[in-house]
Amino acid sequence: MGLTLKDLLLEEGLVTVDQIEQARREGKLLGRRLGESLIKLGYVHDDAIASMLSRRLSLLAVDPRRFDLAKIAKFLPAETARRYGVIPLSQSGGTLTVAAVDPTDLSMVDDLRFITDFPNIEVVVATEGAIAELVERHYGSRQENPPPAAADLAETGDDIEVLDGRYDIDLVELEMGADEAPVVKLCQLLLTDALRRGADRILLETYEHECRVRFGIDGLLYVVMNPPMLLRRSINNRMKIMARINPGDGGDFQQGEIRFRLKNQERFRSVEMGVKVLPIRYGEMLVIENLPQERQLAGTAETVFSALEPDPIERIVGGGRGMVLVTGPPRSGRTTTLLALLTLLDLEGKSVSTFSSEVTFSTLTVTQLAWHDSLSTREAVRSGLSQRPDAVLFDPGDPSRVLELILEGAAERLVFVTMEARDSVSAIRRLLEHPQREKLGIDRETVLRSVSAVTHQRLLRRVCAGCGVEEEAPGDALRRLGIPARSPLRVKVPGGGCPQCNRMLYRGRVGVFETLVVDEPLRRSIASAATDREVRDGARRRGFRTLADRALQRLQNGDTSPDEVLRYPWP
Question: Does domain 5-139 have CATH number 3.30.300.160?
């Protein structure tokens, strides 16, 4: 199984390179897998993918809907099932059989072994649609407890006013209907209502017979409106104009920024939103994300490194060289944390460059370079390092890109990189065991000497302060997940909902971080071929606080609920 799903699809001629790239972009925006994005865009049918995978990988193809999953589904957390597109089918002795949409994802098998404690995972192939149906049936929908429709809030009397003079109105706007009063008011309503509800992103989606608006609130997506189909183009064009994107340049990926001020009770608030336009089968999809300001990033940085003693800034950043990996699952706030760490630097007295697929925060006084896919990792790194910066930020990263950075000597200065990993220890292990390391001629000792620290994070929904109630936590269930909860433990759980949380029971999210300093004892432990658990246990004896420890602390502080913690597997 050396080939990935992308490789197999291209070899079989089921999709084109351009379609792969468009699906990859959509997946990044919406947190979807590659195959899921290709199917949603209408480029390939899920039956064709499943049939091809079964034939090429010599795996059995099944219809998981014919299995009785009532008792077996509990072996897999809902978040894992959704993330990988996988559903458990049966278990026999030490073997768990699962149906997966992408058996080429080797990290999936490793994670399933760790999460389920089954030493053997047998994978069969199933279609995306069948697994999505079963995940929703056995684990519930992502759109439970939706907020009221935005249309119902149009007459709430909210005195928030958009003050926006950053764009010009011309005849093109008028011809496209983007300056019609109802459209202008609707777009302003969507922006202000999203901010009032605490949404971090807005999705404007177009399908064959409908269009819809969804808000991303605390990690979940909720449908808030289904505008008339006749208005879909006018709404999209109005948003584009506000973001200073040319409405006439359709058919390609576009991005821009909406900047405005909100007036609320004679007080003004500056807001900055990133806008991405993605061409899809039935038109365009807009993703509008709320970008935090620089002052919010400083507080995040102090939270991340609060566990390090003595002075965290001096230990990690003060040395002026080395690599800091920021890891976590998709949409866990890795980029925000990465940029927050930059606020620990003396930005006035140092030269700082960032590489990313987009310019993320215009408020930061650093050189932000958009990294185009036409550039290889090595070309991008060499281009940036030629400026001789004191610190470099690289986002997004993966093991092969991190190894390229090490090869180019980037770790001789301070480097911050994002990367997906199960936890902080496994992030280092992924670098050491990645096949690209040997191809590049990088020895294990060089990798261990280059990485100075690894952070791992997740976001948990915060129990609403207005309606949350206290009760005793299920200590046995928490201990089964490796969280050393003491019994009895009084925690806050969601109540019946209130206006403060829009009847959603939760409001906002809190970060859970673990920060592993790669010191000499840790290097010796990893070099001695110790298991990840042995490495973690050794680090804990030296004061390392794990993600599970942090989650328990959040429970004790009343920040989150046991149900929210139980959504995740904890290493």
Answer: yes
